[in-house]
Design brief:
Order of helices and strands: EHHEEHEHEEEEHEHHHHHH
Mean pLDDT: 94
Low-confidence stretches: none
InterPro entries: BtrH_N, DUF4872
Pfam family, one: DUF4872
Number of strands: 9
Protein name: BtrH N-terminal domain-containing protein
Organism: Streptomyces flavalbus
Shape: globular
Structural class: alpha+beta
Number of helices: 11
Radius of gyration: 20 Å
Length: 329
């Protein structure tokens, strides 16, 4: 058996911030989950649909692992990433880190993990690994999934080798932090600027505030988009509120990040954005409830109302990001 000593195996609300939090705390850096999410410019929006998909997908954050890349850049940390098509080399990469006394981050497909009771393929799931023995791997996942958990080595190998949307080639990573990280203000302003710029100037119409507007148009048709609305609509709502998003499709995490920022930076524009994201978070929870109700009842009026709220949310978030772009500028 090999385990990294003194790992703080706390499960948080979101998988990537949970894993990165483990790596940071092991090096003596304690940041709240909202601060990790915000410094990583994690907030985004995507309305994703195609002929090959069974049902549309609403995403509220940047693509998997981008948050970690962004955060490492903000903290001036060295992010060491290893990818390979060889399962043996992939395992050797992990063993080298753990035997060297360091927890390691892994990107994998959660479908194959033993402790996941809901079996849905998601190749962008990220965990921290801190130990192994002859049969099991010891991981840290979200609080919802159990925090400190274990899975068989065979299931971990399947999860890491999986191919499909958002998967990586046996990706593992570690973080090395500088002796003196930047001050809070130096970290926050670039994070606000990057997040606002991407949200306000999306390259295609299904991203950022434009994507929310599009979702408001398309969600009204969702009863006709599925053969099983009682399954697919409540599942979509669950993903928005409960599936590792921190609630309200990550808007709760970003609201709390902005609240922490107001304690460091005295700015009326920042306080305005904080207020607007508090409003947006509540409205996203309302949208999820309306979508779930539409699935349960088959009543399209709930989707019509959800579409109207999403139209309003596009404007609210656009205004909030404009305020943040002025803070950062």
């Amino acid at each position: 058996m090999a385990r990294v000593v003194d790992v703080d195996a706390r499960g948080l609300r979101h998988c990537e911030t949970t894993a990165v939090g483990v790596l940071l705390r092991h090096q003596g850096v304690e940041l709240s989950e909202p601060m990790v999410f915000g410094l990583g410019s994690g907030l985004s929006f995507v309305y994703w649909d195609s002929k090959t998909m069974g049902f549309p997908f609403l995403g509220g954050r940047v693509k998997p692992f981008q948050l970690t890349v962004n955060l490492a850049d903000r903290l001036g940390a060295r992010l060491s990433v290893r990818e390979t098509t060889s399962p043996r080399r992939a395992w050797d990469n992990v063993v080298a880190a753990i035997d060297g006394g360091r927890p390691v981050g892994l990107q994998l497909d959660s479908y194959h993990l033993d402790y996941f009771s809901t079996k849905v393929h998601f190749g962008g799931h990220i965990v921290a690994m801190y130990g192994y023995d002859d049969h099991d791997a010891y991981l840290v996942d979200t609080d919802q999934q159990g925090g400190a958990v274990s899975t068989s080595l065979s299931s971990l190998a399947e999860a890491r080798a999986a191919r499909g949307p958002m998967t990586a080639r046996h990706r593992s990573f570690t973080l090395d932090l500088p002796g003196e990280p930047p001050s809070p203000r130096e970290r926050i302003l670039p994070a606000l600027a990057a997040c606002a710029d991407a949200f306000l100037h999306p390259p295609i119409a299904n991203l950022g505030y434009r994507g929310i507007e599009r979702a408001g148009e398309r969600v009204r048709t969702w009863l006709g988009r599925t053969d099983d609305p009682q399954r697919d609509l409540p599942r979509a709502a669950l993903l928005m509120e409960k599936a590792g998003t921190g609630g309200a499709l990550f808007r709760n995490l970003y609201r709390d990040f902005l609240g922490e920022c107001t304690e460091v930076i005295d700015s009326g524009k920042l306080r305005t954005a904080h207020r607007l994201y508090a409003e947006a978070a509540a409205q996203w929870t309302r949208v999820a409830a309306l979508i779930a109700e539409a699935g349960a009842t088959g009543d399209a009026a709930h989707l019509e109302r959800a579409g109207l709220v999403l139209g309003e949310l596009s404007g609210i978030e656009r205004e909030a990001m404009r305020a943040l772009s002025q803070v950062a500028g």
